[in-house]
Automatic annotation (TrEMBL):
Top-level taxon of origin: Eukaryota
Signal peptide residue numbers: 1-27
Annotated protein name in UniProt: Uncharacterized protein
Keywords (A to Z) from UniProt: Signal
């Protein structure tokens, strides 16, 4: 038998097993087998590059398809979030501007971590991506784009910066004022704005989660109030985005799952202590949290709840996801279809994928980042074409 015939037999057997074995695994309701790559470091640098190239090509194709479908109008994706958003920005910007990460593997979570604001643009696709660090869903930080006429590098009037209805001075235009002052120039400006609006779309992509979780004394709460009132936090953030950027499309991302089995010292030590004495661990958290001078100071039941729900572990991430889904369900019931808030479920994409996260990290999943971005592009595509 020649080698190609042998290969065909092997693939046939493999295919049959996929149907038979795979079908049985699923019907028994048990888990799928873990990926063949057992750990992050087992992937060589050439394999890392190959993985990146595969997803780069796919991302480019999907962005091209999106822009073809919407007539190649300017598109600005404005991201507000933590390092998991920065990773997505790095991946996307490396697609739009090859070499963006200066020779470093763009999926590494440490790349460009000193850039708190960052932006890139591709003139063929007419797509701009801007990232602003905002790990606690801070509404004032969300206004970054509104208050600037230049990109983070200081370039004036870069393409696809903001829709003109936001005003050149960065102030929202009051429709009532426009009525009373309506001279010819204003009417012309109005018409130009309408034209610019149909051409330029702003997509606001938001989330917070990892910095809302604690690990006792090894990692006190960074944003306690947001953890305690997460449903309201998400709804207020969504409403602020709608107010600051009228006509924009909105999407949220559930926070990555946490893979605590990847933690190294001191996080792993704290987890061992917590397992041995859960009540003591909780008491310690409440004590530390009670020292902050926020509105929750002295509110022991609230602090206890935040401490219990907000542990930097898989169940803490699951709790945030559950509450984000609830927040967006309620928010979408309040809004019309045109204003629908989209969802990118990074939690679901990272669950059970500990191999993709570096040892002693357990929060960033380098190899899964392109998949999260692809889900973002697909969500954006669906929504942009629905509302056009
Ligand atoms: C974001 O970046 C600014 C500097 O631009 C810094 O002062 C701030 O601490 C950072 N915030 C977060 C939440 O990382
Ligand atoms: C919490 O803080 C308040 C105000 O500082 C204080 O009176 C109270 O004793 C503290 N409670 C605990 C359990 O630490």
């Amino acid at each position: 038998m020649d080698s190609s015939g042998h290969l065909n037999l092997v693939s046939l057997a493999f295919f049959l097993c996929l149907l038979a074995c795979g079908g049985r695994v699923l019907s028994e309701g048990s888990k799928l087998p873990p990926p063949l790559i057992s750990e992050f470091d087992a992937v060589s640098s050439s394999q890392r590059q190959a993985w990146l190239d595969i997803w780069n090509t796919h991302a480019w194709n999907m962005l091209r398809a999106l822009q073809d479908a919407r007539g190649n109008g300017q598109l600005h994706i404005y991201m507000n979030g933590d390092s998991t958003f920065r990773q997505q920005k790095n991946f996307l910007c490396n697609v739009l501007q090859p070499g963006f990460t200066g020779g470093k593997w763009p999926l590494d979570y440490k790349v460009l971590n000193n850039q708190h604001e960052s932006s890139c643009y591709n003139s063929e696709l007419k797509i701009r991506v801007t990232y602003v660090n905002n790990s606690c869903c801070d509404t004032e930080r969300l206004a970054y784009l509104l208050h600037r006429d230049t990109d983070p590098a200081g370039k004036e009037n870069p393409p696809a910066w903001k829709p003109r209805t936001m005003g050149q001075s960065g102030m929202l235009r009051d429709p009532a004022m426009a009525e009373t002052n309506a001279g010819t120039q204003d009417l012309e400006a109005e018409a130009a704005d309408v034209e610019a609006d149909t051409e330029m779309r702003l997509v606001v992509y938001l989330g917070c989660g990892l910095h809302l979780m604690h690990l006792g004394r090894a990692r006190p709460f960074e944003c306690l109030q947001q953890q305690y009132g997460y449903v309201e936090t998400i709804q207020e953030f969504a409403q602020a985005a709608a107010r600051l950027y009228p006509g924009s499309l909105q999407m949220f991302m559930t926070t990555n799952n946490v893979c605590e089995s990847n933690f190294g010292s001191p996080y792993s030590d704290v987890l061992k202590e917590a397992a041995a004495d859960p009540q003591g661990f909780l008491r310690q958290c409440v004590e530390i949290a009670n020292m902050t001078t926020g509105p929750l100071q002295g509110n022991i039941p609230a602090l206890t709840q935040a401490c219990r729900e907000g542990i930097l572990m898989s169940h803490g991430a699951a709790s945030l996801r559950r509450r984000m889904l609830l927040a967006l369900k309620q928010e979408n019931e309040r809004r019309g279809r045109e204003d629908h808030v989209g969802l990118v479920d990074a939690y679901a994409l990272t669950e059970g994928q500990c191999w993709a996260s570096q040892w002693s990290d357990g929060r960033h999943y380098a190899f899964v980042v392109p998949m999260v971005v692809m889900e973002m592009i697909a969500t954006m595509h669906r929504q942009l074409l629905q509302t056009h």
